[in-house]
Amino acid sequence: MKKIYAILILALGCMSYSYSQVSVSGSVVSDPDRQPIPGVSVHIKGQPSFGTTTDFDGNFKIQLKEQSGVLVFSYIGFKTKEVSYSGNQTLSVSLTEETSSLDEVVVIGYGSQKRSDVTGSIASVKSKDFNKGVVANVGQLIQGKVAGVNVTAASGEPGASQDIIIRGVGSLRSGTTPLYVVDGFALDNSNNGVASNPLNFINPQDIESIEVLKDASASAIYGSRAANGVIVITTKKGAKGRTQINLNMTTGFSTLANKVDVFSADEFRTQVAAVNGTLIDGGANTDWQDELSRTGVSQNLNLSMSGGTDNSTYAASLGVDNQQGILKNSDLKRYSGRLNLNQKAFDDKFNIAFNFTGTKLENSRPDARGIVGNMLTMNPTDAVYVNGEPNVNLSNDVLNPLISQRNYSDETNNNRILANIAPSYEFIKGLSYKFNLGVDYSMSERDVQVLPYSSETNTTLGSLNTILTTNNNVLYENTLTYNFNANAHNFTILAGQSYQKIQVNQKSYNLSGFPDNGVEPKNQIETASERPTQASSAVENELQSFFGRLNYAYDNKYLLTATMRADGSSKFGKNNRYGYFPSVALGWNISKEDFLNESEVINNLKLRASWGQTGSQEIPSKITKASYTESNTGNDTYPLDPSATDLGGYPYGTIYTRLASPDIQWEVSTQANIGLDFSLFNNRLSGTVDYFNKVSDKILLEIAPTDPIQPTPRYYTNIPKMEIKNSGVELALDYSSDKSRDFSYSIGGNISLTNNKVQKSPYTILTTGAAQGGGQTGATINGVFNGQPIGSFYMLEFTGIGADGLNQFEDTNQDGQILDNDRIIAGSALPDYIYAFYLNFKYKNFDLGANFNGTVGNKIYNHVAMTSFNRGQLANSFNTTGRASEFLNEASTNSNTVSTRYLEDGSFLRLNNATLGYNLNPKSIGLDNVMDNIRLSVTGQNLFVITKYSGYDPELNTGISVGEIQSFGIDYFSYPRNRTILLGLNVAF
C-alpha cells in the first residue's frame, strides 16, 4: 500500500513539474530578406546562461519555468531584440542588421558620405562619445577623442579660450585656430567682443556629431581657410515618429584641483629668519589660496523636443547654463534656444532645411593674474579680516586682495544669432540644386571697471573701459550635385559658388577719475574728472569662392576624390587676390576583393592616399593698403614759420604708418597622407593608422626692414623659402565585447607622434615668448629657430649658485664670460606625442566610463616661479615655495634671470572625466505610462593629474603673443584649473 502511495505522489510531482513548464519555439530570420539565421543566441532576459541557439534553419525551442517573460535574441552583426512570450507559443522573430561603421554617414564639406567611401582622413565623434561634465564649448567635448588633435585650454576659467592644434602648428602669426562649420555655415574667427571662447555660444547638448577634417583632401573644399584643419559641427535634427522629449538637469561643484606648495604661516616665520630677512608677523595663520578661491556651483537645465512625419521633421531645445569659476567674480551664463526644421514637398523633390540658434551670454571675469599672484605671495601671517571687515593694514602696504576683487569687474553681455535656410530641388533623378543663405550676427558690450578706493596707504582712481562690438557675417551659397550610376561605376559631382561678407565695428571709451559715492562708474560716466579717450574701428572683408568635387567609385572597391577651390579675398592685394587649392585622393577597399571577401578575421581593410593644398587668410585686414597719419615730430615737419620757437609752432606733416603691399600672397599648406582603416574579428577590433607630411610655405610676417632708412619701421611680407614642416604618425584603436550580454565593455585610445620643424628661416631667432616684470621684461624665453620646433626655449643653462651667492651658468662657447651667445635651445613647448585612452563598462542598467589624456616631451617655463619664488621675495616678507631656500648660500639680491632654472617637464597623464550612470526603468516606480527612461549619473572631471610640473597645472597656454607671433608653454600666472563633481538627471518622455 505504501508503495502505491509513493508512486502516486511521484506521478503527481512529475505532472506538477510538467504543468509548470512552458515550451516556446519558433524561427529567426533576417529583415528584410527573410533568410534564416543559424547560431542566434536565445535566452531569458537577465539569465544569459539559461538559453539555446537556433539551428541551421534558424529554428529554436526552449523550455521555460516562467509562464511569461522576455526572450533576448542576439547575433553578431544584427541588432539585439527582446520579445515577450506568454505560455506555450510559437514565435516568428526578425532581426535587423546593425549598421556597421562602414555604413555610418560622415558629414564632409557640402555633403556627406558613407564611411566606406571616404578617401580622406576624417575623424567623427558622436554625441554619445563626447566628454562629460561641466562643458562650455566644442573643444572640451572632443579633447583626447581624435588622433592628431591637441586641445589645450588657455586656463581654468569657465569657457576659457583653447588652442586646438590639428596635426601640428603650421603658421606663426595666424595661430592654430581651425575653421568651424556649423550646419553648413562657415564661422569667421574675427573679433566678436567676447574675451572668452567665441564658441561658447553653441550649447554642447545641441550637438549631434563633430567631424574633424584633418588632411588636405578632406579639407581642401574649404580652400583658403583650411590650413589649420576644419571642424564640422552638426546639431541635432528631428526624425519621423512620435514626439520625443528630453529633460536634462545637472548640478556641479568645483574646487581648486591642486594647490601650489607655498609656505604655511609657521614655515614662513622659520624660513624668513633662515634667510636673514625682515619678518613682518601679523600673528595670523592664513591660507590665501583658500581665502581667494571658492567652491563654484554650476547648474544646467536643458529641455529638447523632436519628432515629425514623412514630410516634416523638427527639433527644438531651450537651455540655461550657469557656470561659476573657482575665483570670485568668475561666471559664465548662457541662455540658448535652437530650432531645426525640415520640410519636404512635391514627391520629395523639394526640400527646405532651416537651422536657428539664438544665444545670450553673460560673462564675468576677474583679474585672474593679480589674484593668482596674491594667492601665492601674500604674507600668510596677515589676518584676512579685522572686526569682520577686510584687513586694511597688511604687510608691505599691500592692498587686501578681497578689496581688489570687490573693486574690479569685467563684464560682457553678448547676444548672438546663427541662422541659415537651405532650400533644394531635384530637377531630374540624381541632379539637385541647393541654395544656402545664412547669417551670423553678434552684438557685445563689455565694461571693465575699477571702483574708486582710498585708504591711508592705497588710493585707486575709479576707471571704466567700455567696448561695443558688432559682428555681422552673411553667407550666400549655390551648389549643384549630380549622382549617377553606370553599371559598376558610381559618380557624384559637386559644383558650387560661395560669397561671404564679414563686417566688424568696434567703439571704445576710456574714462577715469570717478567720485567715491557708492555708484558704479558705468552708471555715472558724466562724473569722470579725467579727460576721456575714445577710439573706433570698422572692418569689412569679402570672400568670393568657386569650388568643385568629383567622387568616383568602381565596384565599391576603387575610390577617387578630386577637389578644386578658388578663393578671392579682399584681404589681399590686387596682384594676388585669388588663391587656388587642389587636392586628390585614392582609396582601395581591399576587404571587398575576392581573396578577402570570405575572410572570418578581416571584416574591413581600406587603404587611402591623398595629396592637396590648403591656405590661410587669417591675416589682419587692410595690410595690403597704404595708411597715413599726421605728425610734427622729428623729421616729419619743417619750420615754415620763421618765428616758431618750438614744435607747437611747426606744421603737421603727412607720413606713412603702413606701406601698400599688393604682392602679399596666401600662406599655403601642402599635405600628403597615407592611411589604413581596418576592422577585425566580427568588427570587434577596429582602428586606423595614418602617416602625414605637411609643409607650410609663403609664411607671412610683419618684420623690420634690413635697410634702416624706410618710411615705416615694420612691414608685412612673405618670407622667401621659409617653411614649417609637420610630419608624423597617428594610431587609433577600439575594441568592443559582445554588447548583448549583461556585462560588456569597450576600450580604446589613440596616440599621435608629430615632428615639428622650421626650415630655411633667414632669421637667427623670432621671439615667441618673452618675460614680463621682475626686471626681465622683454627677455626672450622661447622662439623660432631654423631646424628646430616652434616654441623652442632659448636661455642660459643654470648650473647652480656660486660662492658669491649669485647664479652660475654654463659657458657654452668657452670664451670665459657669460653673454647672450651662451644661450642654448633647451627643449620645446610642443609635445613629442599626445595620447588618450578610454575604458567603458556596462552591467545590466549600470555603466561606467573613464577618459584619460596626456602629453610627453613638452617643456613649461614657470614664469610664476621666476617672478615670485626667489630669496629676495622671502626676505621681504612675501611668501614663496621651497625654491627660495633651495640653495643655502644664495644671496637675497640674486637676480631672477631667464634660464633653465625655471624650465620644467610639462608631460602629464590626466583622468579627464569619469561617469557612473544608472538607467532606471520607469515601470519599476510606476511611471512607465509617463516616461520612457530615467537616467541618474555622477561625473568627475579632472579627478587627478600625474605630472612633475610644480605649478597649478601643466595644461596651459595664456594666449599671449609677441609681435603677433603666438606664444606656447609659458605659465604667466594662469587661472588655476578646478576639480568638479557633477550630479545629473536625464528623463526621456
TrEMBL record:
Residues 1-20 form the signal peptide. It is a multi-pass membrane protein. PROSITE patterns: TONB_DEPENDENT_REC_3 (PS52016). Gene3D superfamilies: Carboxypeptidase-like, regulatory domain, TonB-dependent receptor, beta-barrel domain, TonB-dependent receptor, plug domain. Belongs to the TonB-dependent receptor family. This is TonB-dependent receptor. Coiled coil: none annotated. Keywords: Cell outer membrane, Membrane, Receptor, Signal, Transmembrane, Transmembrane beta strand, Transport. It comes from the Bacteria. Residues 115-230 form the TonB-dependent receptor plug domain. It holds the Pfam family CarbopepD_reg_2. NCBIfam families: OMP_RagA_SusC, SusC_RagA_signa. It is found in: Cell outer membrane.
